[in-house]
From TrEMBL:
Residue ranges constituting the Transposase InsH N-terminal domain according to the UniProt record: 22-117
Domain Transposase DDE: 380-469
Species annotation: Alicyclobacillus dauci
Region named Disordered: 136-172, 402-429
Listed InterPro entries: Tnp_DDE_dom, Transpos_IS5-like, Transposase_InsH_N
Record's protein name: IS5 family transposase
Biased composition (Basic and acidic residues): 411-429
Length: 495
């Protein structure tokens, strides 16, 4: 039965607050604030600022990093992020405010400077601190479970002939390292030769207007034929199924229009310096010059391949990455190589040009040894990592590399070897889960940042959020274990 509800809007002063003006310790943002080493991050962040007392006071690292974590965790835009922080006292506590305030803590435009100031190097360093702390907590938890066991006596003796308790030597190999790579698509339109040339022509026309503006009425404006070029482009672009010959003719026309505009710009520069252009126009002019060279070469050779191919004028660093996936054979964005250790994700390499992820294995293993003090027992990776160089390196260092042997498969397979390969394949799927979690929930599937540095910072923050969520889930299970005494294995907690 539907009950009658109050039909009048209650006043804000009459709204009941269950926490009585105090924040709850069990809130997720409060728990996350305990995990991040703010003081250590502050020491790294302060190096980027001068000690000069003149000028405005810089925003604290907790506010800058906390705001970026909230944004990537919740998927807010810059403007919506500031609105949510202004409305939520838990978010204000997370970014380091001492009391709730109704005014926005900072302007949305500052988020761009936060990404530039922090940078991917600082974010990756914070990520490694969090991963090391999480692994240490898990190891301490395992030690606490076995604390009632009596210490074992060893057969060794000291120099005086007395017995001594067993001294555990540091392990040389421990844990498993999972490696894989993926592409993080950038927020660019699907590039075609015709659309790129049309966009370049439109930008060149704006540059022509800017260079000719100081001489209006004194000098005749170059005849760029922009209306005719627009009609030629739309004639093919609006055709639902244009043929190859029609597309080639349209591309040739746009190439000639772009070349004509570039010649006019070269003539106008003799009267108006390039300093009359804005920074964006000057940058677009340089990019279009290289784009025209590439498109002219591909048009002449009748192919679609060229080194360092530009697929976006706004983001010239983006390259086509051939992945061979069923959903999209080619993706456009930086390529990302990561490693997964006990459910924690670490960035190994990020490249805007396509690279063979198999070449990153040795560097990833050496970083593993630097981070934890020992080599992994096994490496779980795709077949692309099983090169002769990698196999020799793993054999020399006593590391097992998963997968079958090189060469022709044997006629009789070892059941134990087949069982181990199946087990490795199941454990290696954890890295696919990390890719899915990052792309579907935390924005790794579409990078909206424009600049190269800010895009790398956004990717690093998203990996940081993955590890924070991992530690938050682990903390949740530990609280349940203390409250209800439930028995569970930490290693089986959802990664």
């Amino acid at each position: 039965m539907y009950a009658n509800h109050q039909d009048q809007q209650i006043l804000p002063g009459d709204f009941f607050l269950p926490f009585g003006g105090r924040l709850s310790e069990d809130n997720r943002w409060v728990q996350l604030s305990y995990i991040i080493p703010w003081r250590r991050v502050e020491q790294e962040y302060s190096k980027h600022f001068s000690r000069d007392l003149r000028g405005g006071r810089a925003v604290s690292v907790r506010m800058a990093l906390g705001a970026l974590i909230i944004q990537e965790r919740e998927g807010f835009s810059d403007r919506h992020l500031v609105q949510h922080i202004t409305e939520n006292p838990y978010l204000q506590y997370f970014i380091g405010l001492e009391a709730y305030q109704e005014e926005p803590p900072f302007d949305p435009s500052l988020l761009t400077y936060f990404r530039k100031r922090l940078g991917p190097d600082i974010i990756n360093q914070v990520n490694e601190w969090i991963v090391q702390a999480g692994l240490q907590e898990e190891q301490n938890g395992d030690d606490d479970e076995n604390r009632d066991e009596p210490p074992r006596e060893s057969g060794k003796f000291d120099a005086n002939g007395g017995s001594q308790s067993e001294v555990q030597e540091p392990p040389t190999h421990q844990g498993k390292l999972i490696l894989d790579a993926t592409c993080t698509p950038a927020d660019v339109a699907y590039p075609t030769d015709l659309s790129l040339l049309n966009k370049a022509r439109e930008k060149l026309e704006d540059i022509l207007d800017t260079l000719h503006a100081p001489h209006k009425g004194e000098m005749k404006k170059p005849r760029d034929r922009r209306r005719q070029a627009r009609r030629d482009y739309l004639r093919t672009a609006k055709n639902r199924k244009p043929g190859r010959s029609e597309i080639r003719r349209a591309v040739g026309r746009q190439l000639r229009y772009v070349a004509r505009d570039l010649r006019f710009i070269k003539q106008l520069v003799q009267h108006t310096p390039l300093t009359a252009l804005s920074r964006r126009q000057y940058r677009d002019l340089l990019v279009i010059g290289e784009l025209y060279r590439q498109q002219r070469e591909m048009y002449r050779l009748r192919n679609h391949r060229v080194s360092d191919r530009i697929v976006s004028i706004v983001q010239p660093d983006v390259r086509p990455i051939v992945r061979g996936k069923a959903k999209a054979n080619v993706e456009f964005g930086p390529k990302l190589a990561i490693s997964v250790v006990n459910g924690y994700t670490l960035l190994e390499e990020i490249g805007w040009d396509s690279f063979n992820e198999g070449t990153t294995l040795i560097e990833s293993v050496e970083r593993y040894q630097e981070r934890f003090g020992y080599y992994p027992e096994a490496i779980l990776a795709d077949k692309i990592y099983r090169t002769r160089e990698n196999l020799k390196y793993c054999k020399d260092h006593g590391i097992r590399l998963s997968g079958p042997k090189l060469g022709r498969p044997p006629k009789q397979t070892d059941p134990e070897q087949k069982k181990m390969e199946r087990q490795d394949m199941g454990e290696r799927n954890a890295v696919e889960g990390k890719f899915g979690e990052g792309k579907r929930i935390y924005g790794l599937g579409l990078i909206r940042a424009r600049l190269r540095q800010t895009s790398e910072t956004v990717i690093a923050i998203q990996l940081l959020v993955l590890n924070l969520e991992k530690r938050l889930r682990l903390l949740f299970w530990l609280i349940l274990d203390e409250l209800f005494g439930t028995d569970f294995d930490i290693s089986k907690v959802v990664a």
